[in-house]
Amino acid sequence: MVIEMNIFKEMGLAVYSFKSYKEFLKNRKGKVFLFSIVVMLIYFFIKMVIPFLMLNGSGLASVIKENVPDFRLENGVLWVEEEVQIDDGDTCVWIDTDPDEVFYDADEMEEYYDEYTNVWLMDSEKMLIKSNNNNMQQFYFADMDAEFSKEDLMALVPSFYFMMVIIMIICYVVMTALFFFGVLFVALLGMIVASCMRYQLTFGQLYLLGVYSRVLPLLIKALVSYLPFTIPYFWVINFGLSVVIIGIAIKGMREDLLQQQNNFGASGDTRWME
User: Fold this and answer.
1) pLDDT per position as a tens digit, 41-54
2) Residue 81 belongs to what domain range?
3) DSSP per position, the chain
4) Is residue 2 part of a domain?
5) Which among 146, 178, 196 is the end of a domain?
6) Do 203 and 248 fall within a single domain?
7) Lowest-pLDDT range, 13-22, 138-147, 253-262?
8) Residue 57 has pLDDT above 70, yes or no
């Protein structure tokens, strides 16, 4: 009778005890699949859910109430309680709905904001938008036939959270599918490693080892996402670490098999290729 380890214990062993990978080969496919789902849930929570909660810690409704000035779009005219100016050198936002302060048309304004990548300009009657260095576009509120206010924006908050839940579920499913595809890539590289080390494993066994070899790289990847800078070619480093882990695990299996041969004189193990 085989006693299976707890999934969370296996996660710990997958990170620091590469000799345990030999025991992972005994796991049933269903357990390995469940292990993958749980690992991706943890990864998704660290990488996606925590940043979202940090961003919306005080609640989106409170953020809007405290940071968005009162505004109203009615009968083709925009009114904003106070002027808004944001300029970080790359993006410029300027909202001024004083009837006496009107921006020129897009063709004339574009030359003044040529050095900006993104521009949002609004007066009481129109909106000028430049996005990703494209030509500035002009939209008149009178042509939109819409009415909107800060109260309407606040009323959309519950719908926003519902949409975010749906989006996060979709993101989790996509990320999990990519995880299994990534394990396939690691298993293919593992075949090369096993061949070089002259240790025979089936592709199914290498795929299983690939699942466990992704735990530590995924944890590192999730934590690296919090850094204020990006690491060039990090995906190469990340997948390379998985291949190294598989190599270490195979090395341990190879040494165990050699030790068994020395102790018991066993020579019939077909996984050992002289």
Assistant:
1) 999 999 999 888 87
2) 76-146
3) -PPPPPHHHHHHHHHH-GGGHHHHTTS-HHHHHHHHHHHHHHHHIIIIIHHHHHHTTT-HHHHHHHHSPPEEEETTEEEESS-EEEE-SSEEEEE---TT--PPPHHHHHGGGTT-SEEEEE-SSEEEEE-TTPPPEEEEGGGT---EEHHHHHHTHHHHHHHHHHHHHHHHHHHHHHHHHHHHHHHHHHHHHHHHTTB---HHHHHHHHHHHTHHHHHHHHHHTTSSS--TTHHHHHHHHHHHHHHHHHHHHHHHHHHHHHHH-----TTB--
4) no
5) 146
6) yes
7) 253-262
8) no
Higher pLDDT, 167 or 61: 167
- Span 103-129, average pLDDT: 87
The answer on pLDDT for 265 being more than 60 is: no
Indicate the residue among 112, 146, 180 that finishes a domain. 146
**119 and 33 share one domain:** no
Residues 15 and 95 both lie in one domain: no
In a shared domain, residues 49 and 163: yes
How many structural domains does the chain have? 2
